[in-house]
Amino acid sequence: MSSEPDPTAPDTSLPETAEQLMQAASARIAALEAELAEQRDRWMRAEAEMANVRARARRDVDETRQYAVQKFAADVVEAAENLHRGLESLPPAEHHEPPIVAKLREGLAGIERSFLAILERNGIRRDDPTGTGFDPNLHQAMGEQETMAHPPGTVVQAYTPAWTLNGRLLRPAMVVVAKAPPAELTGEGARLDRTA
Predict the structure, then answer these.
(1) Three-state SS across the chain?
(2) Looking at residue 104, what is its pLDDT?
(3) Which of 77, 91, 127, 150 is the most core-located residue (most Cβ within 10 A)?
């Protein structure tokens, strides 16, 4: 066989037609547009993830800043409670008591008011739950008391107040919670006997 080209075979080295060039260009444009869309989608996802990371980091820093003093605040709360217990241990005011005792009582009460105001300005809040509903997130039940004077589940006595730091519990209130008295004490047992 000879290695010379066949003169009857179509010439494949001829340039493509204009239509073929347009189809090839359109296919290349479509492929580039698809790649651009994929890259844009990746970029948008990466930007969204970075925005989430920045927001999460900002929240973490704010929370750390806000609650970094939690241990110190718990110690300060102990001092505030001791000051309050000291005030409560003073004898009640009497008309004929020495003026120095009255001034001492007034001075300590003023110190307590000032101390509590400073704590509140710094996000530490005292809450007396007496008369409110029992909240297990803020209160620790030390006992129950049968009473008809308060609805069941109401705090009837607080040994200590609840303390919070920027809304987060530092120390729960130690409370006594109302419970309904037995049926025979409320008269329901007698009514049931009469209807039977």
Answers:
(1) CCCCCCCCCCCCCCCCCHHHHHHHHHHHHHHHHHHHHHHHHHHHHHHHHHHHHHHHHHHHHHHHHHHCCHHHHHHHHHHHHHHHHHHHHCCCCCCCCCHHHHHHHHHHHHHHHHHHHHHHHCCEEEECCCCCECCCCCEEEEEEEECCCCCCCEEEEECCCEEEECCEEEECEEEEEEECCCHHHHCHHHHHHHHC
(2) 87
(3) 77
- Among the residue ranges 34-38, 100-104, 127-131, 160-164, the one predicted with the least confidence is 100-104
Give me the residue label for tokens 């803020």: 138
pLDDT at res. 63: 81
Q: Could you tell me which CATH class the domain 69-185 is placed in?
A: mainly beta
Q: What is the pLDDT of residue 182?
A: 82
CA 175 to chain CA centroid, nearest Å: 23
Tell me the sheet residues that pair with 169.
164
Q: Does the model's pTM come out above 0.85?
A: no
β-pair partners for 140: 174
The residue type found at 46 is A
Residue 5 confidence (pLDDT) = 57
Domain boundaries, the chain: 69-185
Q: Which residues contact 78 (CB under 8 A, 6 or more apart)?
A: none
